P-type Zn(2+) transporter
Amino acid sequence: STPAAIAAGLSAGARRGLLMKGGAVLETLGKITAVAFDKTGTLTSGKPLVTDIVAGARPEAEMLALAAALETGSSHPLAVAILNRAKAEGVSILPASAARAIAGEGVEGTVGGEEVFLGSPQAAARRTLLSASQDEAVARFNAQGKTVSVVVIDGRVVGFLAIRDEARSDAAAGLARLKAMGVRSVMLTGDNQRTAEAVASGLGVEARAELLPQDKQRIVKELQAQGLVVAKVGDGINDAPALAAADIGIAMGGGADVALETADAAVLHGRVQDIPDMIVLSNGVMGNIR
Ligand code: ADP
Ligand code: MG
């Protein structure tokens, strides 16, 4: 393909919100045979809502206030959901000290003199014991495709927040199109296995769950070791290592700054259909026949 055709392809992409960092990226996109998608904010809308609050040892409003305290300043989609709910309920948020995000697990810090952790059931289980009835409550929400954040205070589970993030409206169609093109898709998530299965089965995609950032990177490398040319699509929050390892890292709609730095391409409108669209664009420019 000529330099002029490549330049025209890059600008045609840019007009549709498909940004590619140069001709080599455009060329490689046409060779993609596997796409690893992040779940939250990539296959799902990334605008989750808190649907259920299960309070045990503490009143509901207090639990929400503690959770919101830890999430203040976090850009994680779940944090936004929790902060929105706290705002809607008018709870007053206490200041948290030494709050820190633990990639793929949750957030932790001191609020009002208490050590509070908020995060996935599997991360909570590494810190404390969940009772059989607590496990059951988590499983019930997970089966509905909801993500559960467990609130742990001073080493004791005090309740849960269940959060629902709808699949993007074009996710199933975009994945079906990739399949028809002979491209294998895999959903990678730090979320719980059962939640992942509930979401993935609705979308018709293979899922790998309960992954830490380094696990996502390992899976990208495993796919490459099988001879696949791999694109990784994500918002960049916690998935920079996998984005960097992929043959092509694609940042999805309004992603974190880190993603745009690490990524080779970005889709500004955040549609799953943008991924097959970029492959089609590349094939057109490079004269590939699929
Ligand atoms: P994903 O792979 O879906 O993008 P992450 O790796 O960001 O998910 O997070 C994995 C899990 O860790 C989430 O499903 C959630 O349970 C927990 N988690 C991570 N960050 C937070 C946070 N800021 N607040 C609450 N829970 C969190
Ligand atoms: Mg993520």
Notes: The chain has two domains: 3-45+167-286, 49-164. The pocket of magnesium ion (ligand 2) is lined by residues 38, 40-41, 235, 237-239 (CB under 6 Å). The chain has 13 helices and 13 strands. The domain at 49-164 is CATH 3.40.1110.10 (Calcium-transporting ATPase, cytoplasmic domain N).
